[in-house]
Write a structure and sequence with these properties.
The structure is a homodimer. By secondary structure, chain A is of the alpha+beta class. The first copy, chain A, contains twelve helices and ten strands. The radius of gyration of chain A is 26 Å and the shape is elongated. Chain A binds a DNA duplex through helix 3.
DNA sequence: CTTTAGCACTCGGATAGCAAGAGTGCTAAA
DNA sequence: TTTAGCACTCTTGCTATCCGAGTGCTAAAG
């Protein structure tokens, strides 16, 4: 079932030409592209074989060939040349990583934009569920007499805050007290460990206060919970319209609105399937989601610390420049891993000044 | 130059029909819609007048009429009935406001999504430049020996954070010291007041530390600076494709990519022009941005506290359901104002009505 | 002076037919 | 196995034609 060398050459020519032009490729065009010393008739015979075997398709009898998903698959697995990024490109990515990724909880947003801009495809980023997340620190900051801001820092260095208003006034010392209480009783606990029992005890220790402890702790629980669900961000959906396969508005719209249902998207990705490889390409019908059956998805995973993984990906027509996209994606993913890694492991590079 | 009552009725019928159907309206159709007891010929005469005067346009000789921007303008100013939201709608909005608007710095994002979903148009939100923003509070939280997270809270209750890494180890007490130093020296200062002079003094007072003060303070300055530029968020751009005027992909793409240049968008909006009214409608060529010349924009302003204003808006074809959109937008804007208001004033100054 | 009926006219959109061009598949020979 | 040649298929673009919607105008009626 192995293809001859020549067939592979031809398949490759078809794929690469089609990726560039989005036009079916005919036998004559292949002649030049593949640099084979045979006639177009020979190529036609080969094409017929490849079509027979399911690697190519014909939009209609008298058109050239386009790759089938199976054809792309073979191409990606065996024929594709790894793409090296230019120095300029890596420089650009590095710069963006350093410039934009200051606040860890905005990372997925920014990373999405960046990738989308880099690849000209819509991108999405998800930060995997951190099942065992805990709070590392509480801070309460008085705003005025009757309200304060609760800030929690999780062990994955995500900072979240909420404005909490009270029916009564509150003093700075009271808040201090609460803060230390919170920091002694609730830090390092996972969601499950934050039992009502524990809260009752603390509430009691705090004395007076109006269920303040539970207000703050339930906020903390919300945060932990939200980290449990994977966070999703999509960006650059408008790039869909750049590609001729979506000149039909109906199609474009379907895909776009699917992408904006971020939860559905997250669900449909076979994250476990990523396994140990750090990039994965899903071609057309290989996608589980019905809406993605005639698009391709390129995924790259990044380490989020604690053995947790996040995923970054782009969506595009099956006629996608897999090599380039995979290269970029994987470079960004590495960058993200380092970014998160830095936070965890001690010695790194010195921070640049401003 | 006043139009007769009948002309107004006809204009109104044209606008409203066209808003619904996106099809040019003919004289016969108007008969039924406007409920006038005249013949179609009479209507045609009136239509000719209205076209003459620039309120209507004809796509081509043998088509019906569509409203011109001038026609829409008249409609919006005089003919449009204010739309009341249904109880269900207000309930829905209120719920979303309470549910989603916990973190103040995520508000503009969430508000955008919400409005876009509510109106089926792409939406954007900008939080006006807070020129005089100050820091209200610093917190430094140790992550591990050589890194910590700086959290700053601004006077507009925005919380921002950054992970800062050091070439040396740091102890909890040291951080404590720094924190109080920061909170005594730099709180309540505007961007301009955070002079190098001030930093030098504080740095000196802090003794040892590796320019730590300036690291944190320059982060704070970045934050203040970023609040100075207006923050922009766009959402729901895919809704553009819902409307038949964008069945042409080229057009849709242009608009989309314009919307994603958030800075340009923010620049182009005539915010001052909003003046005291709290909603404003810009029809077609009334927009300054070239890219919006054949779209309409509905804006509503909300109070962000401190006399500062933010703006929330949607973009759509000139054939937009102005009444409904304006109603929803203004309701959301009010909600936002209250949200911010809550944070700021205990019931000091009453809400402005109208 | 306004309204109306009647009618010719215009233009866009749909449909069909036709010619050109691209690319194939097949056959028969090298 | 490869190649040349050729008939065949199917798309694309163009043109012609028809149909209908809706107008604008005129002349008569209120």
């Amino acid at each position: 079932m192995e293809l001859t060398e020549r067939k592979k050459k031809i398949l490759r020519a078809v794929v690469e030409s089609y990726i560039r032009t989005a036009e079916p490729v005919g036998s004559k065009a292949i002649l030049e592209l593949a640099g084979l010393n045979v006639s177009s008739a020979t190529i036609r015979n080969e094409l017929a074989d490849l079509t027979e075997q399911g690697y190519l398709e014909q939009p209609h009898t008298s058109a050239g060939r386009i790759p089938s998903p199976k054809g792309y698959r073979l191409y990606v697995n065996e024929l594709m040349q790894e793409q090296r990024l230019s120095l300029e490109e890596t420089r650009q990515i590095n710069e963006a990583l350093h410039l934009k990724m200051q606040e860890l909880d905005k990372v997925i947003d920014q990373a999405g934009r960046m990738v989308s801009q880099l690849t000209n495809y819509p991108a999405f980023v998800l930060a995997g569920n951190a099942r065992r997340a805990t709070i590392r620190r509480f801070e309460l900051i008085l705003v005025d007499g009757s309200s304060f801001i609760a800030v929690v820092l999780t062990d994955s260095n995500v900072v979240r805050n909420k404005l909490i208003r009270l029916p009564v006034d509150l003093s700075e010392p009271q808040l201090q007290l609460l803060t230390t209480l919170l920091n002694t009783s609730f830090v390092g606990k996972t969601l499950e460990e934050l039992t009502p029992e524990l809260m009752r005890v603390a509430e009691h220790a705090a004395g007076s206060s109006y269920g303040l402890i539970s207000l703050v702790v339930s906020f903390a629980m919300e945060v932990l919970e939200s980290l449990g669900h994977s966070a999703v961000a999509t960006a650059g959906t408008s790039h869909i319209l750049d590609h001729p396969e979506y000149r039909d508005v109906g199609k474009a719209q379907k895909l776009m609105s699917y992408l904006s249902e971020e939860q559905a998207l997250a669900q449909s990705l076979p994250l476990p399937a990523l396994g140990d490889e750090n990039t994965k390409i899903l071609i057309g019908p290989e996608n589980v989601a019905e809406e993605l059956k005639d698009t391709s998805v390129v995924l790259a995973s990044y380490d989020i610390g604690d053995g947790m993984k996040g995923v970054i990906g782009v969506v595009g027509p099956t006629r996608m420049d897999y090599a380039k996209v995979a290269a970029k994606l994987s470079y960004v993913a590495d960058g993200l891993s380092k970014l998160f890694g830095q936070a965890e492991l001690p010695p790194g590079k010195p921070e640049k000044e401003e």
